[in-house]
């Protein structure tokens, strides 16, 4: 007795969709070895201080002011001025260089790798707590407050609409919808 052959019916659309996804996957895998990780690409803009310093400052900025939904590029906008400023100010270049050297030495002693390569934020924070009262940490933290939070491109990501006076003020634009205030 002959057993009928089971055939799997695949529509043309399903076949094309599947083969397209497979081709995209193969392309991504082959291009993956050529792609530079995002932090290294952003840090490459540090021509005077060097990409290693740029990457460390970027990781440090994210650890001091953590916002998981904010892209690295916004943090980079806040720390990029250090490269140009350090080119003109040897004292600043020394402060940053010495500070990062100290941070990397602490990280290497405790975790066996430089600060920017320490895998978890919790581990990196222990290192930052060690240097938090020093001039280097205070300089980065102080500049980040204004450099990061004064960037108008970041405001919408926090739900801030910006100035309201040119739009008639806050009273007519939702100020009166505060449900947590008692009604008069």
Overall spatial form: elongated
Q: What is the distance, rounded to the nearest whole angstrom, between the alpha carbons of the first and last residues?
A: 90 Å
Q: How would a crystallographer describe the biggest sheet? A: none
Structural class: mainly alpha
Summarize the helix and strand pattern as letters: HHHHHHHH
Global Rg: 25 Å
Please bin the fraction of helical residues.
Answer: 55-70%
Note the beta-strand portion: under 5%
Number of helices: 8
Strand tally? 0
Low-confidence stretches: 22-36
Q: Any key phrases for this structure?
A:
mainly alpha; TAT_signal; elongated; Gluconate_2DH_su3; 8 helices; TAT_signal_bac_arc
Q: What does this 3D model show about the protein?
A:
This protein is mainly α. It contains 8 helices and no strands. The chain has a domain of 112 residues. Helix 3 crosses helix 4, helix 5 crosses helix 6 and helix 6 crosses helix 7. It starts with 11 loop residues before the first helix and ends in a 35-residue tail after the last helix. About 8% of the residues have low confidence. Pfam families: Gluconate_2-dh3. This is Twin-arginine translocation signal domain-containing protein. InterPro entries: Gluconate_2DH_su3, TAT_signal, TAT_signal_bac_arc.
Protein topology:
Elements: H1 12-32, H2 38-43, H3 51-64, H4 72-79, H5 81-88, H6 90-111, H7 121-131, H8 135-149
Organism: Denitromonas halophila
Protein name: Twin-arginine translocation signal domain-containing protein
